[in-house]
């Protein structure tokens, strides 16, 4: 639980979570949920990442391979002197807020399948893309050999919490709006959690 809470607690270093409690984030994440939040005014993320887009989609995976890769990358870059704590872990404005340094680097990822094709569960299923890749990491078949393929092929549920962050009165429980941008595989449990924390679904505009 401490590890999960620490992952959720690191989100304010990368995006604006004003009005969103760590308890909510640590309940939603990790898992098959992508949370859309505004980028910070003093954005610590690479300016080449979706330039001109005001929000960023954040997901904390429950894949041990991805988590180890992110942590190992931070360690290697730091040990090789390619990054320092000041370079990566803090935007200058964040030091004054007392955020602890994180131990993993955020990774920018896309799905391992051609656009329009179903999600893949093993490297063999996207072998057509191998010639275009520098490296393929095999963490085993998603869901295991006896898993529910249909369930594991479903995309993550995408929930937009940026309306709550942007509204002026974040203290009013009844005015904490959210939007579902993609139903995905965790819609029911995601909405149940949001309602437990006093969020209300926004009507489509």
UniProtKB/TrEMBL annotation:
<dbReference type="InterPro" id="IPR006070">
    <property type="entry name" value="Sua5-like_dom"/>
</dbReference>
<dbReference type="InterPro" id="IPR017945">
    <property type="entry name" value="DHBP_synth_RibB-like_a/b_dom"/>
</dbReference>
<feature type="domain" description="YrdC-like">
    <location>
        <begin position="1"/>
        <end position="186"/>
    </location>
</feature>
<dbReference type="GO" id="GO:0003725">
    <property type="term" value="F:double-stranded RNA binding"/>
</dbReference>
<keyword id="KW-0963">Cytoplasm</keyword>
<dbReference type="GO" id="GO:0006450">
    <property type="term" value="P:regulation of translational fidelity"/>
</dbReference>
<dbReference type="GO" id="GO:0000049">
    <property type="term" value="F:tRNA binding"/>
</dbReference>
<dbReference type="GO" id="GO:0061710">
    <property type="term" value="F:L-threonylcarbamoyladenylate synthase"/>
</dbReference>
<dbReference type="InterPro" id="IPR050156">
    <property type="entry name" value="TC-AMP_synthase_SUA5"/>
</dbReference>
<dbReference type="GO" id="GO:0005737">
    <property type="term" value="C:cytoplasm"/>
</dbReference>
<protein>
    <recommendedName>
        <fullName>Threonylcarbamoyl-AMP synthase</fullName>
        <ecNumber>2.7.7.87</ecNumber>
    </recommendedName>
</protein>
<dbReference type="Pfam" id="PF01300">
    <property type="entry name" value="Sua5_yciO_yrdC"/>
</dbReference>
<keyword id="KW-0808">Transferase</keyword>
<comment type="similarity">
    <text>Belongs to the SUA5 family.</text>
</comment>
């Amino acid at each position: 639980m401490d590890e999960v809470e620490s992952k959720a607690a690191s989100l304010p270093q990368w995006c604006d979570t004003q009005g969103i409690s760590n308890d909510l984030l640590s309940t939603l994440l990790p898992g098959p949920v992508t949370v859309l939040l505004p980028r910070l005014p003093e954005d610590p993320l690479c300016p080449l990442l979706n330039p001109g887009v005001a929000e960023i989609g954040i997901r904390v995976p429950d894949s041990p391979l991805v988590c180890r890769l992110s942590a190992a990358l931070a360690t290697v870059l730091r040990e090789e002197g390619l990054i320092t704590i000041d370079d990566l872990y803090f935007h200058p404005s964040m030091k004054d807020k007392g955020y602890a340094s994180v131990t993993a680097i955020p990774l920018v990822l896309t799905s391992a399948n051609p656009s329009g094709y179903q999600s893949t569960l093993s490297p063999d299923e996207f072998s057509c893309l191998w010639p275009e890749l520098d490296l393929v990491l095999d963490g085993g078949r998603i869901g295991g050999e006896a898993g529910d393929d249909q369930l594991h092929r479903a995309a993550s549920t995408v929930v937009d919490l940026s309306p709550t962050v942007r509204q002026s009165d974040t203290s009013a429980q009844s005015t904490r709006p959210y939007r579902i941008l993609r139903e995905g595989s965790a819609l029911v449990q995601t909405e149940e959690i949001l309602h437990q924390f006093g969020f209300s679904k926004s009507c489509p505009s």
